[in-house]
Each structure stands twice: as structure tokens, then as C-alpha cells.
Amino acid sequence: MSKFYINKLAIVGLGLMGGSLARALKAQGSVGEVVATGRRAASLEKGLALGVIDAWTLDMKEAVANADVVVIATPTLIAEKVLAELAPLMTPSMIVTDVASVKGNMQRAAERVFGEVPANFVMGHPIAGSEQSGVEAATVDLFLDHRVILTPLSTTAEPAIALIQAMWEACGAEVVCMDVAEHDAVLAATSHLPHVLAYTLVDALAQNGSAADIFRFAAGGFRDFTRIASSDPTMWHDIALANKEAILQGIDDFSAHLDKVRAAIASGDGDTLYATFDRAKRARDEHFLGQYLSRQKKSPSS
Amino acid sequence: MSKFYINKLAIVGLGLMGGSLARALKAQGSVGEVVATGRRAASLEKGLALGVIDAWTLDMKEAVANADVVVIATPTLIAEKVLAELAPLMTPSMIVTDVASVKGNMQRAAERVFGEVPANFVMGHPIAGSEQSGVEAATVDLFLDHRVILTPLSTTAEPAIALIQAMWEACGAEVVCMDVAEHDAVLAATSHLPHVLAYTLVDALAQNGSAADIFRFAAGGFRDFTRIASSDPTMWHDIALANKEAILQGIDDFSAHLDKVRAAIASGDGDTLYATFDRAKRARDEHFLGQYLSRQKKSPSS
User: Fold this and answer.
1) What is the total count of domains within chain B?
2) What distance in Å separates the CA atoms of residue A113 and residue B145, rounded to the nearest whole number?
3) Chain A contacts of B202, Cβ < 8 Å?
4) Is residue B106 classed as helix, strand or coil in its secondary structure?
5) Which part of the chain is the Prephenate/arogenate dehydrogenase domain (chains A, B) (predicted)?
6) Are residues A207 and A159 in the same domain?
7) If we measure between CA atoms, which residue out of B142, B226, B236, B227 comes closest to residue B188?
8) pLDDT by residue for chain B (302 residues), tens digit each?
């Protein structure tokens, strides 16, 4: 990685993701200047005050001028507008990437703006985050030991892919390449659907007449189960709409399965219930045992 | 609490709950002898080897002879059989309690066995646990700073309630009394329903053709969301059947809410989605902010 260096990094939309990227690259000495732009001067000014960025401007043209790398880190549905603003400012030596959670939507947006996805636009998605948001939540190690999925097309330039890969690896992430549709299906299952379910459950309970008691007696299991329902509503509103088809499919698969479990409870079919719960436990333990054990060491009584 | 002391504690069903109770009471010097009984000699022998109990026997009569307190800590659906075995062995000076997660079922079982719930049977439910199970997972602090709900009836003896309350307070728990039906409704919402949903989601995903990829790219949010799906299938099979009506009601409320969210995604109704997600975030943050912040300090980048 020693040859990897970004002279000027421009971040469009300075929040948890863009801020954490800036912090990590600065800590590694992998970046010269970090300039951020966006719609809200307050966030940008906060980023400057926290030392996350070196400068900010509300002017996109100024922000990206002479940038080696431009990272689009706005909410998903705003990214298309950003691409349109960026289009006339892009140069052949400028590499553009993004951090949006849905990639099919981003590909379609780029196709609408550019006709075809530019060779120096490398679509990406760091699988990291927090139920906190905003530049003030940015940390130097948000991406450390996390995966970053890149979804380059056959027309994406190899050197551009290599640079974006090196950028994330400098943050301590493991980079994996994946097909756009596969990315969106996998993320719908493991991230988008669980968020929808958690939001739905908490909102349903909050509207229950006994909501105060319900939350009062909620234990650690409920707290963990609903942690993702504390995530940024704007971001998840965007994701739910951007990855609509895959999420609807996920909801339908889940609902069909829940109907079967409901029928087993209603009819007292203990064998089906036990088999379902046991399969789920085995699947989860098989896939998470390593991570699970390391968490247990930290909180043995949780 | 200095006057509180149990000369002989009998535990029927030695697992995580009974074992942790024994460890906590021993650590506090609040108990003389702890004798356990159950169906599996191996678990009982393990408890003895680990120093959790002082003695064990497969003979219920021997186990409860001269016990001040008998704790029924078997899986929920076995408790009725235990009550039936215990009935001829109970003496007026013996106080019986249980730790089952469903109380209406336990009340009906006691009524079937005894005609009416005995005055010295104090139904209880510690809101503590872990996705681990078995006596080997028992810890001295499982109940520390957790709530224990007692659901005494109007016919339950006050001194019996006071002693069981003192027993749990000696373990560091906060004791709350609640109506049986209210307990079962609240626990269905905050614990039983989330477990059913988590098991259902993990099992649905495990049966997906892309299961390996799905689990491979699952991040921290998914791991937390599904942690409770690693819980003991036998225990949750029992709970799902024992609290059937309240859980079915919870599933139906949840499904109706999910249908609305699904419709909003399908029709691109961003306002409804944002309002739902935002209400959920506010409700959760309002109820959990204290606990949430203390967790965040431990793992800032999770």
C-alpha cells in the first residue's frame, strides 16, 4: 500500500461515513487535503471544528476541483442529484465512488445522468455503520475489520477499482467485489429487511395502549433486537425506496414463513415449532460462533 | 436483608436460571445447603463439580425434604408435571416458587394439580437470561440489576411473597409485582414475539439458496437483531405454546403493521415510511437512551 496516496479527497455529504473515511485516511497519512461539501453549512463547520476535514465549501465545483477522489456520501436518494451536479465537473483523472447501501438504484441513476456508468465511477458500499449518524459520530476505526463491497461493471476502469480498493484497505477494511443485483439481494436480506422489521415492531408496540409497561420491562434481548430501529430514519427511508423490489421480496418470504410459525403455535404443533427454532439456532450459531464468542467475553452476563 | 436466610434451597431443573440463583445466594451467604434434582444426572453432576450446588439426587422427595424454598426451574411445559410430583411432598413451612416465562399457564397448571393455587406458591419470573443455557453458563451476577416479576394472587401468603422477594433482592434484582395476565401480555410483546420473529427470519434466510453469502455479509446490526435466535429451542418451544393467545395476538398486530409498511414501500409512499421509522426511533431512544448510552461507551465502533 505504500504507493497509495490521495492528494485531494472531496467528500460530498459529510456524515458518519464520509467523516469516518476522512479520519481513517488522515490517521494513516494516506491523504493530503480533505475538502467537504454538502447542503448544510452547520455539519460542514462541525467537521472542520472536529478536525475531520481541512476545508469546506457549499460550492460543488470548488470542492471537487483537482480532487483525485470524490466520495459521494449523501443519503441514497440524493446521490442522483449529486451525480448530475458532478457530471460537468468530472475529469478523466478524477475517480468517483460512493457509499450508498443500494447499488442497482445508483447504477440506474448514473445511467440516467451519463447515458452509461462512467469508467471512473466505482460503486461501493462499506458494510459498517452505527445507529448513530452525523459527522460528530465519525470514528477513525469505523471500517476496521469490516467488509467493503465494490460493485464494478465490466466497463469500470481497472486502475480506478484498484485505487478505491486501496483506499478502503488503508482504513483497515476487507474489500470484496460483487455483482450489483447480488449485492442488493444479499443486503436486502441481512440489513434492509431486518431494519424494516425492527422499525415495524417498535412502532407497533409504541402504539399499543400498554407501551409504557412494555418498554419498561423490556430486557437485553429486546434492546439488542431493536437497536437498529434507532438508526437514521432519512437514510432508511431512502434505502427502503431505493431497494424496493428486493425488500418486498424479503418481506414476502418472511411473512410466508411467519404464517407457518403462527399456524404451528395456533394448532399447538410443537414439532414444527421446535424444528424451526432449532434450525434457526443452528444456522446462526454456525455462521456467527466466532464473533458471538468474542462478544460473550466482553459481557458475560448480558 | 440481614434477617433473610434459607437453610435449605431445593432446585428442580438445574440450568442457567437455577444455577445462577444458587451461585448468587451462595456468594451472598444467604443459603445453607443447595440441593438440586432433575431428570438428567449429567447436568446435576456438572453442577456439583462446578460448585454451584452442594448435593443432587434424582429423587424429588429426597431433594425437597425439609427445604425452606423449592425453586421450579424446569422448562415451562414440564413445570406442571413437577407441580404434580411436588404436591404430596409440600409442607406448610415450604415455600415454592418458579422462574417460568409464562405465568397464566403456570397458574392453570397449579389449579389443575391443587384445585386452587396454594398460598405458599409464589409465581415468579426473573427478566434475565442469555442465549446460552445449561448450568455451565450459570453466573453469580445473572440477576444483578435485572427485574424479577412476581405474580402473586390475592390468596398468596404475604410472608411467602416477602421471602421470595428477599431472595431475589439478595441476588441484586429489583422485584416488581404484576397481574398474571398483564405479565403475559407485556412479556409476549417484549420477549416472546421478538424471539419468534428472530427465529423466523433466521430460518427463512437459512433456507434461501444464497444463505452462505447472506450470512457471510451480515454485519453487526444483523448479529444483534438475531442474537436471540441462538436461544434454547426447547425453552422457546415451551413458551410459544404456553403463552399462545398473547403471542398470536402479538403476531397479528405485527403482521398488520408490516402490511402497512409493505404497502408504503410498494407504492413509493415515502412520507408514511419516514413517519413510521421516525416514530420508532423516537420511541426506542426515549425508552432506552440511558442503557443505550452505557452500551455505546463500551463499543464505540460497533
Assistant:
1) 2
2) 56
3) 280-281, 283-284
4) helix
5) 7-295
6) no
7) B236
8) 446 899 999 999 999 999 999 999 999 999 999 999 999 999 999 999 999 999 999 999 999 999 999 999 998 889 889 999 999 999 999 999 999 999 999 999 999 999 999 999 999 999 987 778 899 999 999 999 999 999 999 999 999 999 999 999 999 999 999 999 999 999 999 999 999 999 999 999 998 877 887 888 887 789 889 999 999 999 999 999 999 999 999 999 999 999 999 999 999 999 999 999 999 999 999 887 644 444 444 333 33
Query: Does residue A193 share a domain with residue A174?
Result: no
Contact A206 B139 (CB under 8 A): no
Q: How many residue contacts between A and B have a Cβ separation below 8 Å?
A: 314
Do the domain assignments include residue B298?
A: no
Nearest to B221 among A147, A191, A215 (CB): A191
CA gap A65, A9 in Å, rounded: 10
Distance from CA of A91 to the nearest CA of B (A): 34
Read off the CATH number of the domain in which B109 is found. 3.40.50.720
B246: containing domain: 183-268
Looking at B160, B178, B196, the residue that finishes a domain is B178
Q: Enumerate the residues of chain A whose CB falls inside 8 A of the CB of residue B195.
A: 221
What is the residue whose three cell numbers read 434459607? B6
In a domain, A127, yes or no: yes
Contacts of A269 in chain B (CB under 8 A): none
Q: Among B161, B38, B210, which Cα is nearest to A178's?
A: B210
**Do A14 and A144 reside in the same domain of the chain?**
yes
Tell me, yes or no, whether B108 and B253 share the same domain.
Answer: no
> Does residue B167 sit in the same domain as residue B28?
yes
Q: Give the position of cell 448513530.
A: A132
Q: Give the phi and the psi of residue B270 in degrees, each rounded to 5.
A: -65, -35
Q: Are A29 and A107 contained in the same domain?
A: yes
